[in-house]
Design goal:
504 residues, 7-stranded mixed β-sheet, signal, 6-stranded mixed β-sheet, globular, 25% helix, alpha+beta
């Protein structure tokens, strides 16, 4: 049977351009200059292929849209055959930058490489097999149902498309050089998808958020990604720059909780921590309204969303009392002579995590927590250790950039999931996640997702959902009409300056 891969996954109707205005203008000769905090460390399509689609030197089999759907990209069609088999049919005429055609044999090669070496793919599709089914078609057989496959194929961390023989990709830009400071791209004159507007792009890796914003204000850069709130505050009324906002709030700041050790090995302490955090104050006061207050794990418009996040200091204190933590004269709780002490990790590539962590520190003190704030250079690297942290802040959404709720849940909360950084091991939650893999009917999927939220949030509070974020970019005059991508597809063949109307 065929499936409608364009079925909306978010109950919104927002249409936005991925890049800038005027795709019919002549090719721009001046390179686009971008500053971003995240460095591309490698061109390895298995280990770091997720950068390829974002920066336009690679593409995916399916694509997320700004209206909350997924649609074919390098695929012409995706057809389900029973519960554990799919046919993937490629577009005609797609070529790698090496000149080789993307045909069924090349698709099988790259999918086999991901199945063998990509942890995210292995976790989602363990035991899957790919066979050639025609000149442009392959058959994917899985060990069990994988109802969310369309979204998995639109996820940047899954099947980046590359030529196994040469290591090249299919995107509108070719990589000319990469080092620790910058990525240099050139428009591909032979791009299979047509004319590329930009001759070149320079992506510089600049960890300091203020420095990125100043680079645009001074004319040294055209676009600054991930601007910190402190910088956005200073830009009000500044005619030299524009702050551009994405269509969808796909970003979410969460705290991974280290459940392997005290005090957060006790669900009552985790629930108390969640109840003691005032999300509205963090979003509206600490962050000046640049963030939004979450009411649940998922956006309210989704049919499976549950409003189960609240602030209740009295309830938090009751839970801590039940867990044996008694408040001392200085306000800090102790148990068996040990203080209720936790370490909250912020991380430098996302400067907003530091003031949010400091504000949480003050909020948690009211309940009797003694929270220490630490700043680390890489959030995931710090959380790979079982010691040295209790709450690790990270921008990890509950929806993938393919608008899929199942893969993030499996990756972050299933036992031994590739991003289960806090050490969650819950057989009941695992069973629900496993059932979701075969939930092709929306009503059944929604029921299971609500059950997962009951376990993970109401009963166990495995993660701390802090605030929601809309992606923003600071743009210079030539790119003042650039629209940030909600789904991390920053560049494509149509990206370019606005022309005379933008002062170029």
């Amino acid at each position: 049977m065929s499936i409608d891969v364009k079925r909306p996954l978010l109950a919104v109707a927002l249409v936005a351009a991925l890049a800038a205005c005027g795709a019919q203008e002549p090719v721009a000769q001046a390179p686009l200059r971008v500053v971003t905090p995240y460095s591309v460390k490698s061109l390895d399509p298995i280990k770091q292929g997720f950068w390829a689609s974002g920066w336009g030197y690679g593409e995916l089999l399916m694509r997320s849209t700004e209206s909350g759907t997924v649609e074919p990209w390098l695929l012409a069609a995706l057809t389900r055959q029973g519960e554990s088999a799919w046919t993937l049919t490629l577009r005609q005429g797609v070529r790698f930058q090496s000149g080789r055609a993307l045909d069924a044999a090349a698709l099988k090669e790259l999918m086999d490489a991901h199945l063998a070496g990509n942890p995210a793919v292995r976790a989602a599709l363990e035991g899957a097999k790919v066979t050639v089914a025609g000149p442009l078609a392959v058959r994917l057989e899985t060990e069990g149902p994988v109802a969310n496959l369309p979204s998995l194929l639109a996820d940047e961390s899954m099947f980046s498309v590359f030529d196994v023989a040469s290591g090249t990709f299919t995107g509108p830009f070719e990589v000319k050089s990469l080092d620790s400071r910058k990525l240099v791209l050139a428009g591909d004159p032979d791009y299979w998808g047509g004319k590329v507007r930009l001759d070149g792009v320079e992506v510089r890796f600049v960890p300091d958020g203020q420095a990125r914003t100043l680079a645009v204000r001074s004319g040294e850069a055209d676009l600054a990604f991930y601007p910190p709130t402190d910088a956005l505050r200073t830009l009000k009324g500044d005619a030299r720059v524009s702050v551009r906002e994405a269509a969808l709030a796909t970003g979410q700041l969460r705290g991974f909780l280290n459940v392997r050790k005290a005090p957060l090995d006790d669900s009552r302490v985790r629930r108390a921590l969640s109840l003691a955090v005032d999300r509205k104050e963090l979003a509206e006061t600490v962050m000046d309204g640049f963030y939004r207050t979450p009411s649940g794990v998922y956006p309210e418009a989704l049919p499976y969303s549950v409003k189960n996040l609240r602030t209740d200091l009295a309830a938090a204190e009751r839970l801590l009392e039940q867990a044996g933590w008694r408040k001392g004269a200085d306000g800090t709780r102790t148990k068996d002579g040990r203080p209720l002490a936790i370490t909250i990790n912020a991380y430098s590539p996302q400067p907003d995590t530091k003031p949010l962590a400091v504000a949480m520190q003050a909020q948690l003190a009211k309940a009797g927590f003694r929270a220490e704030v630490a700043e680390v250079p890489e959030n995931y690297a710090a959380m790979r250790s079982a010691d040295g942290w209790d709450v690790g802040l990270s921008f990890d959404g509950s929806l993938s950039y393919g608008f899929d709720p199942v893969a993030p849940l499996a990756q972050m909360m299933r036992t031994k999931g590739p991003r289960n950084l806090g050490g969650i091991a819950d057989s009941g939650l695992d069973a629900v996640i496993d059932e979701l893999a075969g939930a092709f009917e929306p009503a059944e999927r929604d029921r299971l997702l609500r059950e997962a939220q009951r376990i993970a949030v109401d009963e166990q509070a495995y993660h701390l959902i802090v605030v929601d974020r809309v992606p923003r970019v600071v743009a210079g005059p030539r790119y003042r009409d650039y629209r940030p991508s909600s789904v991390l597809l920053h560049l494509d063949a149509t990206t370019g300056p606005c022309g005379a109307s933008c002062g170029s």
